[in-house]
């Protein structure tokens, strides 16, 4: 008998008989609701508490803020999506005196070394965001691949205030994740990469970005 | 349970000396005391509203029980959905088989180097040793695991593997093994480790990770982490192999939301970890990164045996947050290594006897004061103290108790003389005459009580019997007028 069949057989022929499933009452999760403006405040408070940098901007001045931040942080280049609207806007309104814009234009195999050591920062949009835990929700795709929000030392995330949901549970339910089918990779990001493995002392950027900068467009 | 079982057995034989050694080591005592005090405070602060915590615990326990109640169906559903997504699913009866499956994949891919995200199941099956024996390098990438691997040790905590070391010790270790400067600057040490590991990530042939929750409904593998090494491990190498115990499956995607919330808050007091990584398929056409191949290895290793028993089943609810060890007075004093097994602390004491056998792990269920803290903080309400008592009974069980419990090594701690003493004790207490005669005789011959009674008098004085029995005293009092 295969290991699979042997294991399943043992589980099916349980000595103490069949088990019954208790009821799962999700009301404690569903009860968490905030007003739209409270959601923004809570999101900011939560994500700042884990060392992310948050700027509230408007739909018209967000690019100026981004340009200023990129310069202030002394970045030499910036990886930007090609198709997503944030990427299109950045590319249209960038100027030559600003750091060079890069594209994730080929499979990782073709430029792994460059991505790992030559890219200073990256910009992504988000699918939604979660107020309760201060989390960004990303579904990486061809335009904004998985390593874009992970390998460069600085990650800029552009969030619209109306993308904020109350809880992770609400995100899954209201966006119909189960029915539309899960992507290759779905992610919650809450702060920059961190570790406390050396004597519980927090240190940032252990493997992923050292800095997470969130622009909330209102 | 595994090819290195003999090593584990050696460790168990030395259980009491190990404990003594740990208790006498001021460094271990100080490192763990400081860390556990901090973790207890952080957990408390993460649950400001007790009613929310209790409702969440009820929900999480119900979700885990629901998953277990449908375990065979959910495993099949998980397999079917993952397979439809393009993930290859493997089944292993034990750690050896799981190691062999992973080795086969490595050999097919001509892999020379494996990079690992944190996985306790891979520790349980001693995957690193196995791969190294076959000339495949297995490198841990979680910072704590990396430190432990540099020191050629095993994790002393399931969440914080290097918690037994302080900054100076880690600085010395990294200096000796990797040539970094000696420094108490944690940022410097972390940045150095980042650089060392980044080079390895770029070159690794295969990434191996664990799984926190496997969602049957969607065929999704969920990983909880802070560092990003889990994401790198599961994204950069061309092949990703996830390995997990069969009990980690949950039914629905929404089930992970309360479990995740309880896991991170109970473990380290974080409202959420930096990354929650949900993987459902290998790289699809047109995608620019991610592994071309994803495998899941489902490992049994005694779990289906635990599953047979209504009471022991609760052991399988565990979501591996480590709160039980953070709150355990025994763990805090002796640290993780003294136990001598992959999983230390209260969860280890109720899990390892099944994985290794009670004959091997017979001392674990007794290494507890039954204070109950572990059961009180468990986010999925596992009645750990009750299970410790059950395993103590199993260890000394004769023919009558839990007759066909199926616990491996059942009765291995039973001694003829001890069971005879308890049988006489029971007999004496059942008969009034015998009881009075016995206690009466004991008071008469009380001078003969030995001053040394084994382990009891190592750090206590021997009990002394009173000159007369309680019955005699009460009787005398009644004669003197009966005042109380």
UniProtKB/TrEMBL annotation, chain A:
InterPro entries: FTHF_cligase-like_sf, LUD_dom, NagB/RpiA_transferase-like. This is Lactate utilization protein. It comes from the Bacteria. It holds the Pfam family LUD_dom. Signal peptide: none annotated. Residues 42-216 form the LUD domain. Gene3D superfamilies: NagB/RpiA/CoA transferase-like. SUPFAM superfamilies: NagB/RpiA/CoA transferase-like (SSF100950).
TrEMBL record, chain B:
Residues 309-337 form the 4Fe-4S ferredoxin-type domain. GO terms for biological process: lactate metabolic process. GO terms for molecular function: 4 iron, 4 sulfur cluster binding; metal ion binding. This is Iron-sulfur cluster-binding protein. PROSITE patterns: 4FE4S_FER_1, 4FE4S_FER_2. Pfam families: Fer4_8, LUD_dom, LutB_C. Keywords: 4Fe-4S, Electron transport, Iron, Iron-sulfur, Metal-binding, Repeat, Transport. PANTHER family: LACTATE UTILIZATION PROTEIN B. It comes from Oceanospirillum sediminis. The keyword Iron-sulfur applies.
